[in-house]
Amino acid sequence: MPMTTFLLDAVGNAATAISIVEVVKNSSLVVNLVLGGLVLLSILCWGVIIFKFIQHRRAIVATEQFIELFWKNMDFQEVYRRSDKLQDSPIATVFRAGYSEFFETKKLWESKGITVVGSKVDELVANIERAMKRESQTRNQLLENSLTLLATTASSAPFIGLFGTVWGIMDAFHIIGKTGNATLGTIAPAISEALIATAFGLAAAIPAAIFYNYFTSNIQKIEGESANITSDFLNSIKRSSV
Fold first, then answer.
1. How far apart are CA 226 and CA 203, in angstroms?
2. Rounded Cα gap, residues 173 and 187, in angstroms
3. 167 with 30: CB under 8 angstroms?
4. Contact 208, 160 (CB under 8 A)
5. According to the model, what pLDDT value does residue 3 have?
6. pLDDT tens per residue, range 103-139
7. I want to staple 153 with a disulfide (CB 3.0 to 4.6 A). Which of 61, 134, 208, 212 is the partner?
8. 121 lies in some domain
């Protein structure tokens, strides 16, 4: 019985696939153009989804490792040295940008005989904060790249599919007008051709919307952690008065 059920399901699935192919073949040029555009859009979106998923996963794993390293209360120089292996973490690169600014500016001022005390501490902190914010924006832009395609597909693909559906229904009514026959057998093929465009639109839009929200949520979490690291690093410099 299980084997029989499996064979029946396989035959049913094959028949469904064949019927979809036949519907596409019999569709009008406009509907086929809509379907082709939606398929291309869906392929592009899945390419972006796979690439961004790998990129975000690496960023998340490296960020977790850096946060664990940072909150162990190590010397910042040691954190900087060990974070060199965590370049996939946006937060690690933000910290490294801040520490580099701290080290280079302090070294430059001391070479000129400038003592880093009082107002100079505030000036140094401001310089470090700008360097870290600049690096944070750069890293966030890398994580956000190509997400516009997902957002655009999520919002526009259903309407593109709906356009194909409307066009197909117009063709169905045109057939009815020419033949004068409004039986189910006459209009059902045209209606099925029309509705498949909406199905293609939803098939492209739903994954795009889900993964766009997933990636956006990841970026927001990373931004929050970056802000925490930046704040703690700057406060440490202020407390120690350099």
1. 35
2. 8
3. yes
4. no
5. 42
6. 888 888 777 777 666 677 888 888 888 999 999 999 9
7. 208
8. no
Distances (CA, A) of 40 to 62, 84, 203: 33, 40, 12
| 14 is a domain residue | no
Phi-psi region at 113: left, alpha or beta (left = phi > 0; alpha = psi -120 to 50): left
Q: How far apart are CA 147 and CA 162, in angstroms?
A: 23
Q: Which two tokens stand for residue 22?
A: 């036949």
Contact present, 149 and 123 (Cβ < 8 Å):
no
Sign for the CA dihedral angle at 189, 190, 193, 197 comes to negative
Contacts of 98 (CB under 8 A, 6+ apart): 128, 129, 131, 132, 135, 230, 233, 234
pLDDT digits (tens, 9 = 90+) for 137-182: 999 999 999 999 999 999 999 999 888 888 878 777 776 777 666 6
User: What are the backbone angles phi and psi of residue 84, rounded to the nearest 5°?
Assistant: -60, -25
Tokens standing for 170? 């117009």
Rounded Cα distance between 222 and 70, Å, is 15
- In a domain, residue 126? The reply is no
Position 118 in a domain: no
The answer on pLDDT for 16 being more than 60 is no
Give Cα separations from 70 to 76, 128, 143, 154, 239 (angstroms).
Answer: 8, 17, 22, 38, 17
- Say which DSSP state 84 is in: G
Query: pTM (2 decimals)?
Result: 0.79
Q: Is 98 or 27 the better-scoring residue by pLDDT?
A: 98
Query: In total, how many domains does the chain have?
Result: 1
